Amino acid sequence: MVDLEQAGNDRERLALRIFKAMEDGTLREALETLCTDDFVWANSGIPTLRGRQAVLDHMASGGFAGMIPILAGMRSFSADVLHIASSGDVVFTERVDHHWDGRGRDLMTPHICGVVEIRDGRICALRDYYDTACYRQQPTEPDPAHALT
User: Does the reported pTM lie above 0.85?
Assistant: First the structure.
């Protein structure tokens, strides 16, 4: 789970807030408050989303499950932030992301190096780099801690 206390400064805390919003299911609202209008979201192996409205439209049409079929059954998300560091307005994270289905199976578990760029106190870019082999991984055995009841 994302812990905002891992942040060493305000820029790192801002970067962690977007991942926390993914966990909490409040990403739509967070995009409005945390991100610039021209926000760019890039993930390995799939088209880059350009503009906050493009991201919102993408979410409204089913999100990444349309591009990554294994995510069709995803019901929740969590991230383990292993490392975070920043230089100026750039924040780097090393994470393990988890995409849980309703039974508590981890559908996709990419190990990610991510870059968050900040401009005028808002996130203007999020780029995640990882091995796309995770798009074909087999779900884990159910974890009762992540099962939806």
Answer: yes
CB 17 within 8 A of CB 82: no
Please say whether the beta carbons of 52 and 39 come within 8 A.
yes
Residue 60 lies in a domain: yes
Burial class, 47, CB count within 10 angstroms (exposed 0-12 / middle 13-18 / buried 19+)? exposed
Summarised one tens digit per residue, pLDDT across range 19-53 is: 999 999 999 999 999 999 999 999 999 999 999 99
Q: Residue 71 is part of which domain span? A: 4-131
Whether the Cβ atoms of residue 133 and residue 24 lie closer than 8 Å to each other: no
Domain assignment of residue 25, yes or no:
yes
Q: CATH no. for residue 32?
A: 3.10.450.50
